[in-house]
Amino acid sequence: MTPPVTPAELTDPITAQLDQLSAQLAQAGPQQAAQILLGVLDTETGILGRLAALVDTGARITRHHAHSGAFPGEMWLALGRTANTLHDLALDLDEHHEVFVQLAQRSSGAAPAPVAGQSGALVARGRHR
Protein backbone atom coordinates (compact mmCIF):
# COMPACT_ATOMS: atom_id res chain seq x y z
CA MET A 1 0.00 0.00 0.00
CA THR A 2 1.24 3.48 -0.89
CA PRO A 3 1.68 5.88 2.03
CA PRO A 4 -0.69 8.84 1.99
CA VAL A 5 0.49 12.00 0.27
CA THR A 6 1.12 14.91 2.60
CA PRO A 7 -0.25 18.37 1.86
CA ALA A 8 3.30 19.67 1.34
CA GLU A 9 3.94 16.94 -1.23
CA LEU A 10 0.97 18.32 -3.16
CA THR A 11 1.45 22.06 -2.67
CA ASP A 12 5.22 22.36 -3.11
CA PRO A 13 5.33 21.17 -6.75
CA ILE A 14 2.22 23.21 -7.59
CA THR A 15 3.74 26.43 -6.25
CA ALA A 16 7.01 25.70 -8.06
CA GLN A 17 5.13 25.17 -11.32
CA LEU A 18 3.18 28.39 -10.78
CA ASP A 19 6.49 30.22 -10.34
CA GLN A 20 7.74 28.70 -13.61
CA LEU A 21 4.52 29.62 -15.38
CA SER A 22 4.74 33.19 -14.10
CA ALA A 23 8.32 33.47 -15.37
CA GLN A 24 7.29 32.09 -18.76
CA LEU A 25 4.35 34.52 -18.92
CA ALA A 26 6.66 37.44 -18.14
CA GLN A 27 8.74 36.58 -21.24
CA ALA A 28 5.84 35.60 -23.53
CA GLY A 29 4.80 37.36 -26.70
CA PRO A 30 1.14 38.26 -27.19
CA GLN A 31 0.02 34.92 -28.64
CA GLN A 32 1.81 32.80 -26.06
CA ALA A 33 0.64 35.11 -23.24
CA ALA A 34 -2.94 34.67 -24.42
CA GLN A 35 -2.47 30.87 -24.50
CA ILE A 36 -1.07 30.87 -20.98
CA LEU A 37 -3.80 33.15 -19.70
CA LEU A 38 -6.48 30.94 -21.27
CA GLY A 39 -5.23 28.06 -19.14
CA VAL A 40 -5.00 30.22 -16.06
CA LEU A 41 -8.27 32.15 -16.30
CA ASP A 42 -10.73 29.55 -17.57
CA THR A 43 -13.53 29.52 -14.99
CA GLU A 44 -14.16 25.79 -15.28
CA THR A 45 -10.81 24.13 -15.93
CA GLY A 46 -8.26 26.89 -15.44
CA ILE A 47 -6.03 27.56 -12.46
CA LEU A 48 -8.18 30.44 -11.22
CA GLY A 49 -11.35 28.36 -11.37
CA ARG A 50 -9.72 25.45 -9.57
CA LEU A 51 -8.22 27.81 -6.98
CA ALA A 52 -11.65 29.34 -6.36
CA ALA A 53 -13.07 25.83 -5.88
CA LEU A 54 -10.23 24.93 -3.50
CA VAL A 55 -10.77 28.06 -1.39
CA ASP A 56 -14.52 27.34 -1.39
CA THR A 57 -13.79 23.84 -0.08
CA GLY A 58 -11.53 25.41 2.53
CA ALA A 59 -14.35 27.74 3.57
CA ARG A 60 -16.79 24.87 3.90
CA ILE A 61 -14.43 22.68 5.95
CA THR A 62 -13.38 25.64 8.07
CA ARG A 63 -17.05 26.36 8.73
CA HIS A 64 -17.50 22.80 9.93
CA HIS A 65 -14.45 23.07 12.19
CA ALA A 66 -15.51 26.52 13.43
CA HIS A 67 -18.86 25.10 14.52
CA SER A 68 -17.04 22.47 16.54
CA GLY A 69 -14.82 25.15 18.10
CA ALA A 70 -11.56 23.99 16.47
CA PHE A 71 -11.20 27.12 14.33
CA PRO A 72 -12.22 30.71 15.07
CA GLY A 73 -15.30 31.82 13.18
CA GLU A 74 -13.32 34.68 11.65
CA MET A 75 -11.28 32.14 9.65
CA TRP A 76 -14.40 30.68 8.11
CA LEU A 77 -15.80 34.11 7.29
CA ALA A 78 -12.51 35.30 5.76
CA LEU A 79 -12.23 32.18 3.60
CA GLY A 80 -15.84 32.53 2.53
CA ARG A 81 -15.27 36.15 1.48
CA THR A 82 -12.12 35.13 -0.37
CA ALA A 83 -13.93 32.32 -2.19
CA ASN A 84 -16.70 34.74 -3.20
CA THR A 85 -14.17 37.32 -4.41
CA LEU A 86 -12.26 34.75 -6.47
CA HIS A 87 -15.51 33.53 -7.99
CA ASP A 88 -16.52 37.11 -8.88
CA LEU A 89 -13.09 37.84 -10.38
CA ALA A 90 -13.28 34.66 -12.45
CA LEU A 91 -16.69 35.72 -13.78
CA ASP A 92 -15.38 39.20 -14.62
CA LEU A 93 -12.45 37.72 -16.53
CA ASP A 94 -14.69 35.17 -18.23
CA GLU A 95 -16.27 38.07 -20.12
CA HIS A 96 -12.95 38.37 -21.99
CA HIS A 97 -12.55 34.66 -22.78
CA GLU A 98 -13.22 35.06 -26.50
CA VAL A 99 -10.60 37.81 -26.80
CA PHE A 100 -7.99 35.49 -25.29
CA VAL A 101 -9.09 32.72 -27.68
CA GLN A 102 -8.75 35.05 -30.67
CA LEU A 103 -5.32 36.23 -29.58
CA ALA A 104 -4.13 32.70 -28.79
CA GLN A 105 -5.19 31.40 -32.21
CA ARG A 106 -3.70 34.30 -34.19
CA SER A 107 -0.80 33.18 -36.34
CA SER A 108 2.48 34.69 -35.20
CA GLY A 109 3.15 36.27 -38.61
CA ALA A 110 -0.26 37.90 -38.92
CA ALA A 111 -0.56 41.62 -38.46
CA PRO A 112 -2.43 42.46 -35.31
CA ALA A 113 -6.08 43.08 -36.07
CA PRO A 114 -8.30 44.95 -33.66
CA VAL A 115 -10.04 42.60 -31.27
CA ALA A 116 -13.77 43.15 -30.78
CA GLY A 117 -14.36 45.61 -27.99
CA GLN A 118 -10.74 46.71 -27.92
CA SER A 119 -9.99 50.41 -27.88
CA GLY A 120 -6.82 52.07 -29.02
CA ALA A 121 -6.02 53.46 -25.58
CA LEU A 122 -5.22 51.50 -22.48
CA VAL A 123 -7.84 52.16 -19.86
CA ALA A 124 -7.14 51.33 -16.24
CA ARG A 125 -10.17 50.12 -14.37
CA GLY A 126 -10.84 48.44 -11.10
CA ARG A 127 -10.45 49.02 -7.45
CA HIS A 128 -7.49 50.85 -6.03
CA ARG A 129 -6.22 49.65 -2.70
From TrEMBL:
UniProt superkingdom: Bacteria
Region (Disordered) location: 110-129
Protein name: Uncharacterized protein
Source organism (scientific name): Streptomyces noboritoensis
